[in-house]
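So, who can interpret the following?
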Amino acid sequence: MLQLRSQLMSSCKGLAGTFAKRFAHVERKVKVNDLEINIVVSGKGDKSVLLMPGALGSAWTDFKPQIEHLPKLLPNYTVIAWDPPGYGKSIPPKRQWGLDFFNNDASCALDLMKTLGRPKFSIVGWSDGGITGLIAAGRYTDNVEKLIIWGAGAYLVPEEVEAFKNIRDVSKWSARMREPMEMVYGVDRFAELWGEWVDAATAFYTDRNGDFCKEEVEKIKAPTFILHGKKDPMIAAEHIPYLKERLKDVRYHEFPEGKHNIHLRYAEEFNKLVAGFLLEK
């Protein structure tokens, strides 16, 4: 009896070790053209999903609950989170701005996935990462299989420009919102970088009539899942019907009390919704 119990315990430990190893994350840098891109990889499935963070965001600041829990819900997927060029640990180089910074991120993301031997992949994009995802899905239709976005729109409206300006001074942010970014960039550099982002984002309004990616939206073929926090203060409500009317294959889910960070505030429900969408044939 004691021997049998010992064997069972050994088997359980072995299974637990195998399970933990399968879903353990690995963080490393990948050479993409002339850039060193930091990624976090979890899971060992044949299919691929890339997590795209928001403004100044990185894999860990923006997607910790997804890195840790999505692979268990998606056993046939490898989950990859990246730090876009000039963000997080993908420094150097210094972040480059201009009216093509979203396009450059989309191109770099595609090159990253090709470098990893995963040229066909799905995208989970938040805020700026959602805009990058829309561009990637519209430009690289043969590569992007499914698209999931939230907190993102195809263009800027005046009230959003004012909202950006109102949050330019990071010293007025709550410590809970400010300190994770200060840990990544340092107090002074975070304040400087955020100011650069506000200028770069609002330039789309002054120089391109607010247009981020209207043309790309019209070209998207990938099934798309829009998640939305009903009380999101960062994007205008009009973006939802705009995207729903123009995307060819779209699904929508609303969090009635959700704000901008529904994937963090409602992580368990969010992850289940994302997994369910990705697992559908």
Observations:
- The chain has eleven helices and eight strands.
